[in-house]
Amino acid sequence: MRAAYSPRYGAADTIEVRELPRPVPAAGELLVRVHAAAVSAADTMIRRGTPLYGRFFLGLLRPRQAIPGTGFAGVVEALGEGVTSIRTGTAVFGETTLGFAAQAEYLTIPADGVVLPKPDDVSFAEAAVACDGAVTSLCLLEDNAGLCPGERLLVNGAAGAQGVAAVQIGKRLGAHVTAVASEGNHDFVTALGADAVIDYNARDFATGGERWDVIHDTVGTRRFGDVRVALAEGGRYVSGVLSLGLLSSMLWTGRVGSRRALFSATGLKPAPELRERLERVAGMLVDGSLRLPIERQYRLTDIARAHRHIDGGHKRGNLVIDMIEALDRENQKIATRSVASEHLDAHERAGEHDMANKTPGQVARRL
User: What number of other Cβ atoms are within 10 A of residue 51's Cβ?
Assistant: First the structure.
């Protein structure tokens, strides 16, 4: 099978596509032929090996798991021993969490892991990106920040994958939502439900005198100490991007004052808890209360381009690796070359037969 492969930490060009053995499902596992895989900002951070302390978990000198990616959607191709809860041919989606390896033509995942049947009304591409932004935002806003109806929520990085989900989930939880985004994305985030929009190039939300009950920093670009003044009494700053500064803020705000800094690593939550959140996100996608815009779809061979686009810092919504269509296109090229080769062989054989039936003089004249 073909897979994205990150042999070392570095720039986008370090990631490549390799031919690797197809995984074999162990007892209790599913083999999934991947149709679509999400590409996220977290993938690019892991590729770079940043922050540096993260390498203690990911691999000191190189990524311990060389195939990146966690969000996927595809079709169950084979079952490991003892799996009875699902059938082959079932369309599924989910998250490999710390197993990574989603950006490949095939992956294995525990049948009782973070994997669910894909709703018929949800595309493979939408399903693949459901965990990265939507499940993460749901956990951070509901579980960690405890966002309540009527509260004021500010989403920093509102046009990104996690941001677009946070805006919509915040509205679903009954909050007044302010989105922070560039001027070019104002209409985009407003259409997703934002009540107000702040252009970060025009003014700093932390110094304008407004107060919010929850500040959700989806991109980790604002330190708690800098935005603390923009939190109301009892306000909460929450982010899924851990830094040493945030860790320090969490320690002291838990003891001093009413404003708190919060962090949660969604991928470390127990599989049953994540499946429940994913079921809720799937329900929102089906009833239309949640949309997960996809800015671009790439072939697997263009994985480095996807990483460069994210590194540029202006991604709108989600990026997806379109595995199955890219594979089908490649197979079609191979089939076309094969047919052309067969046609040429037949033509040459006909020519050889024609030459064999001619006299030496006729052959000489033809040549």
Answer: 13
